[in-house]
Predict the structure.
Amino acid sequence: MIKRIFYGWVIVASCTLLLATTYGISFSFSVFFSSLQDEFTWNRATTSSLFSLYLLLTGVFSIIGGRFSDKYGPKVVIMVLGAISGLSLVLTSKVESPWQLFLTYSVMLSLGAGAMYIIVMSTGSRWFFKKRATALGIIGAGANLGTVIIAPVCAWMIHTYHWRSAYLIMGIVAWLIIVPVSLLLKKDPSETGANIDGNPVLRETEPANTPAAGEFSLRESLITRNFWLFFLIWFSYSFCLHLVISHMVPRAEDTGMTPIRAAALLSLLQAVAIPSRLVAGFIADKVDKRKIAIVFALVITLAMFWLVAADTAWMFYLFAVIYGLSYGGIDPPVIALVGDVFGLRKVGEIMGILMISWGLGSATGPYIGGLIFDYTGGYHLAFFSGGLIMALFAIFMSGVRTDKKL
């Protein structure tokens, strides 16, 4: 008799595809950077602010999305968000003035896609305990895979046609993928008659730190030391990541690299992050998640210092490989730790609140990078700051406690 596959893996596959689509589109912003700057005659700080506002608003909309997902389940929420995302991109292709672009891209796309990460990660967390980091590593790899595929495709469409055509096509792609895939989602294993990890019933010998124990309400989590450490951790991580994603390609172009070769850096960074996520997720299910995150944070710190001095193609490519491996490895243990520490009852809302710090970091990083460039004519100070803030990440992570005495 063929053993029935645990539906949690269908959830993982669906969430991976959803994240690949939304993050592939949004993380390709740097490919559009020069075209938008030329179209609207902006400086780099203003152009960066378009993406910064999008990222800042993701924190706001993630709270709403996480709460609605906890209450109504992910299926209907993501179906609506997918419709909004597609509409946002289609309208972005038609804008005629800067204020319209800020409305259709920064506001509407953040409304449609901003909560996607929190919803798919909190949904995936509910289906697994023993293999939670592994499952979340696979889902998170979708963000990298989507960027690997979509960024160069967008670069080709911009070069061959126009940036407006690229956004129009991406809007249609968002509709064709997100809305149908949302139909496969279920909130938790109880909807399939199974239990977490696919077990029919929990054993009496289940360890004390199973999801049934240590469940925190949103209010209870907010008064813990751990929550505010996570708040600082997410800000630091997001600041550095989005600084790199927004300004690595323009910086490479400044040294003489062609736009397509510079865009390939982003694809390379995301490509090497995929196996790193999978391996790190598997390892994080077996050892202390904090130690894994700290090691990768320190490697990122060194990589950012390397980027300060990068001025040739090989130096940029080496940075992309090292940063991508570390960035991919740091995510699964950090996300899995949230479920481990606070439980699953309100994990969507808790992650939603944490997304405020993520939004603040992701908005601040790109904007500060552009501002420093406009004032100094270079990115040296910006990238050095990114390295320092990841060193702070390691310090904050070392203070997280997993013994429930938060």
In short: The longest helix spans residues 225-254. The chain has one domain: 7-189+214-398. Confidence is low (pLDDT under 50) at residues 201-213.
